[in-house]
Amino acid sequence: GLLKCCNAWSRDTLGKKVYVQHKIKEEEEAIWEQLGKPGSKGYFFLCGSKQPEKDVYKTLLGIMQSKGGMSEAQAQRKMEELQGAGRYVTEVY
């Protein structure tokens, strides 16, 4: 299988903060193909600090809407389906 790890270190680049939601946005095409597209079988794991969890979720909803042509409600249902199937998992503290 394919594994892609995207790290975001918000304090590594002086004057420029890069957060995990920025990295997700950079990978939106691959995320749509592997997670959102009908018939896709990918998994998404968010691990680490709880702080970015809401922004990450919001970014993923946006990908479902922009790449999948989903309404906000449809994107929300898709994310709930992914969570229920164990394909969207958060391990945050």
How many E strands?
2
Number of helices in the DSSP assignment? 4
Q: Ranges with pLDDT <50 over ≥5 residues?
A: none
Main sheet overview: 2 strands, parallel
Provide mean pLDDT, rounded.
92
* Percent range for β-strand residues: 5-15%
H-E order: HHEHHE
Class based on secondary structure composition and strand pairing: mainly alpha
What is the topology, as strand order, of the major beta sheet? Answer: 1-2
Q: Separation of termini?
A: 28 Å
Taking all Cα atoms into account, the compactness measure Rg is: 13 Å
The helix content is 40-55%
Describe this structure in words.
It is built from 4 helices and 2 strands; from the N terminus they run H-H-E-H-H-E. The protein is mainly alpha-helical. The longest helix is centred in the middle third of the chain and has 16 residues, at 53-68. Helix 3 (53-68) crosses helix 4 (72-84).
Which terms would index this structure?
mainly alpha, two-stranded parallel ribbon, 4 helices, globular
Topology, element by element:
Blueprint: H1 20-26, H2 28-36, E1 44-48, H3 53-68, H4 72-84, E2 88-92
Helix pairs in contact: 1-3, 2-3, 3-4
Concise account of the structure shown:
The protein is mainly alpha-helical and 93 residues long.
